[in-house]
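pasting for ref. prot 1 ->
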Amino acid sequence: MNTRSKFEFTYGTASARIKMSSGAGLWPAFWALGEGKWPDCGEIDMMETVGDSSWVSHALHGPGYFGNTPLAHREFFPKGTDVTQWHIYSVKWTSDSIIFMVDGKSTYTVTRAMVEHYGRWAYDNPKYIILNFAIGGGYPHGVNKVNAPYYGLSQTSVNKIKAGNAEMLVDWVLVTKE
């Protein structure tokens, strides 16, 4: 799902109720992106996972802090809980901070001052929402070190995809203004 040219917002809370398959190199994400040249436009990664079902990550990308950004956090689930169960992933975005949440619990807070230590605050412009399911690539490889059969994507995950068992289910998405 991509709301570019359909729906954009500046500040507020964006949430989605999602459950996903796990598997080395499966890369579902819920994120927001501004118009223009990346990373200058600003990117807010509300939720990403690369196949390890025990955690999700939150991150910000902008001018001077992108790729292996210093503004990132892995949030580990409590024992007995993982990405294969329904969770609500959210971000509360203001002019001075971005607060990430899982199931209503604040998991990572980034302030304007933290961002400006690395580069320009790129979060005063409208963002559109993307929910996507990528496979393999640099981020998964950086975590799982898998090289074959595909860079960052294991044979077990390829088999899961071929069997139709790799999925990202989205129950709903909600954006509210503060």
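and prot 2 ->
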Amino acid sequence: MSHPDAYREIDRSADPAALVASLETRGRDTAQRRLRLRFLRAIPVRRRDTVLEVGCGTGVILRDLVPLVRRGGRVAGIDPSRAVLAAARRFCRGTGVSVRDGDGTRVPFKDDGFDVTLAITVLLHVADPLAVVREVARVTRPGGRVAVQDQDFGTVALAHPDRALTDRILDGVVNHVYEEPYSGRRLPALLHAAGLARVRLRTDVYQETALTPYMQAFLQRRAENAVRFGIVATEDASRWLDGIDGLARAGTFVYTVNYYGAVGVKP
């Protein structure tokens, strides 16, 4: 049986193509793109840097990195999923980005090879996040930056007329899917435990006040999973989605969640 977190084992999921499409939908979301670029600039990623992204998915962030490193820089990504790597190669064609198969606990690069290493919205999905951070640090040069970012589902705020049902669905699904739903707030401790220095934290709020395609797909998946995991009945999930649609039509939809980004320097 596949893991309840479909993004942990994309190739074993019921529909890998749908997960690939969802990553690209999120990548095109305006608020998500603003959030990503704020973090990349805060790391910072500089001109001519060599950058590795662990868990690169379809290459959304790899494509963001290209104009930051510019000519003379190098951008590489690894991911264990064949489906997303095929998409990344397609979407990154002509950019100079390189991608290859690789697991975050066994990064296929030599020690001290990159100026910046990234794991963005990845640690939430892995079984041993400290092992990944240690391995990411290994391939970072002394004085280089290790940067990790995750959302923290303990900070979700969603306007809805039925607050109790909303809590049952949102809390129930994340507690079923993720080993640590409050992943974002643990990131500084992970960097310290991996031996990184000068650790700093950046908090950004992802905010939507409209039911964008990404937001609509995200909430639809939450409702479907709540039914699949036996958290609510089908009619309750439909009523919950109807309440969201009503708020969107009235112009009063609100969804926010904190994203925590931690950056450390390899001694």
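The radius of gyration is 19 Å.
The chain has one domain: 6-265.
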